[in-house]
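Here is the promised in-class demo. Please do not try to memorize the tokens; focus on the logic of going from shape to residues.
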């Protein structure tokens, strides 16, 4: 699929993956590899409950769930968990299972705002992240710093996909909770000496058998 300036369209979800771990992003969106763990399963179920709800209204606001988003200018596509159409304009809300930390989800949310700005031809100055763990919203301002970080992530993901790049493993505190740990093998591939040892053992030639002298 071609996007901005003939480039490849990228899913909005890839931006949070890229922000969290560039190798995780490449495993999913370049290598087309994905595996579930308890965290991803919980997240999928939570999103299904949110996304499948009908559009509703309240005084001064309409709630659109599972709304399709796109940006032809940036080559983005995906869905928003919830978009509140307020009198002041669109207000995106992204739902997360755990506590909010690291700002990675904010990058994805900002990309949703960039899509909404193009779709509605208006500015979207803010949105919110909702945590199922705390049952609270965290406001997110789409300031210049976050917009720059989001644009850098968009360029990074597109570069990965176009060049089919797989970054090296980080092998740090993020790895144990990652659903792709058994595919990524960070404790192996992040240690060149250990990796060479495994490769040597894997491709070590078998000892040659004595030649058959032709006797029956």
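The designed amino acids, position by position:
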């Amino acid at each position: 699929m071609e996007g901005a300036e003939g480039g490849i369209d990228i899913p909005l979800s890839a931006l949070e993956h890229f922000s969290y771990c560039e190798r995780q992003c490449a495993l999913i969106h370049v290598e087309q590899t994905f595996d579930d763990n308890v965290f991803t399963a919980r997240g999928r179920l939570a999103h299904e409950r949110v996304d499948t709800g009908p559009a509703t209204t309240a005084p001064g606001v309409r709630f659109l769930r599972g709304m399709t988003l796109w940006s032809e200018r940036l080559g983005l596509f995906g869905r928003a968990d919830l978009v509140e159409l307020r009198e002041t304009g669109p207000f995106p809300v992204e739902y997360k299972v755990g506590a909010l930390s690291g700002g990675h989800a904010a990058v994805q949310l900002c990309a949703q705002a960039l899509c909404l700005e193009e779709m509605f031809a208006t500015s979207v100055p803010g949105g919110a992240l909702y945590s199922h763990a705390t049952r609270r919203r965290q406001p997110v301002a789409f300031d210049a710093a976050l917009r720059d970080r989001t644009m850098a992530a968009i360029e990074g993901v597109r570069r990965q996909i176009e060049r089919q790049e797989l970054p090296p493993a980080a092998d740090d505190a993020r790895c144990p909770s990652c659903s792709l740990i058994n595919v990524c093998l960070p404790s192996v591939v992040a240690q060149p000496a250990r990796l060479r040892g495994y490769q040597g053992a894997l491709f070590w030639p078998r000892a040659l058998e004595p030649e058959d002298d032709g006797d029956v």
